[in-house]
Amino acid sequence: MKKMARSRSNRKIAGVLGGLSKSVGIDANVLRVIFIILLFPTGFFPMAITYGLLVFILPNEEDVIR
Fold it and tell me: pTM score > 0.85 for this model?
């Protein structure tokens, strides 16, 4: 597994799910669908807060030393 960072090329909002997809080797669209599916039953807040925290915690991919 690679070091996780926000993607600069595969992003819709902030690149969190694009970066996660690169690090675990799953298609980003699959992760986006899973995120949306989990967003509604959890009442928006847990998933939205997690995404928001990851935006600030994860570095951009060009900031990660490879």
Answer: no
